[in-house]
Amino acid sequence: MSEWDLRKLRILRTLRERGTVTATAAALHMTPSAVSQQLTNLAAQLGVDLLEAHGRRVRLTDAARLVLAHTEPVFEQLERADAALAAYAHGDAGEVRVGAFPTAVPALVVPAVRALRYTHPRVTVRVRETEAAEAYRLLAAGDVDLALSLAAEVPGAADPRFTHVPLLADPLDVALPPDHPLASAPGLTLTDLAAEPWIHGGSGPWSDITRRACEAAGFTPRQGHSASGWTAILAMVEAGMGVALVPRMAADPRTAVILRELTTNRPVRHVVAAVRRGASSARAITHTLDALKAAARRVTRA
């Protein structure tokens, strides 16, 4: 019978996620040579080749993918065991490390933390702001226990590592300068703004969301300025430098920007929470998810 070493299997799993030995070593706080040595030892223990050369890099063999497919249920069961032991030892008490993209922190995470102080004061939440895609990498690496991200960044419905919980559909409004001629026009559509300069990031999920929404309306947006932070985007819109699609969660009442709800083809971004499969049975994580769902319902009703 082959000898299964969970620590080495975690290294192999991380290599699948990170893509390179160097990135795997950084994620696991190891040296690249140590990663390579551990994987060489694992291959010898299992009696199969796990890696093959691919240019200057290595990639997983079919045997390695087969090994990981059969060990995912083991990792899930270990998460359940950790959750059960935590519940036995600490009851409702526990720390939950949450990784969340920037607009989710004030809109969802902070209200959830405030609520937990009253409903479950023994649950401690530690927040780490991160980009939507990075949240999954942190979750897979064990650096956070719960990730808030966008459905567009979900690794895939068939990914066996995570359990996903839909939170809300965050509507996108058009941000216009206060003196824009269409600021009060009835029945505003994206097509009405096809000739405007648009403000969004040069790349990444928000750029993709803006482009997809405009292309669905029949035009390709002309990028006037590039920015990734909502403070900068709203400041440029307020100054008359262009228009932008802004998620409802990112709206800032302190600016003079006019936010218009679209009447047709209204785009939304779907916000989801994710935990490692098996971990959702931990009481502290369950309570945190419940608080996030309640915060999401309040945002939806606003």
UniProtKB/TrEMBL annotation:
Pfam annotation, one family: LysR_substrate
InterPro entries hit by this protein: LysR_HTH_N (IPR000847), LysR_subst-bd (IPR005119), WH-like_DNA-bd_sf (IPR036388), WH_DNA-bd_sf (IPR036390)
Keyword Membrane (UniProt): no
Database matches in CDD domains: PBP2_LTTR_like_6
UniProtKB keywords: DNA-binding, Transcription, Transcription regulation
Domain HTH lysR-type span(s) in chain numbering: 4-61
Family indicated by similarity: Belongs to the LysR transcriptional regulatory family.
Protein name per Swiss-Prot or TrEMBL: LysR family transcriptional regulator
Biological source species: Streptomyces eurythermus
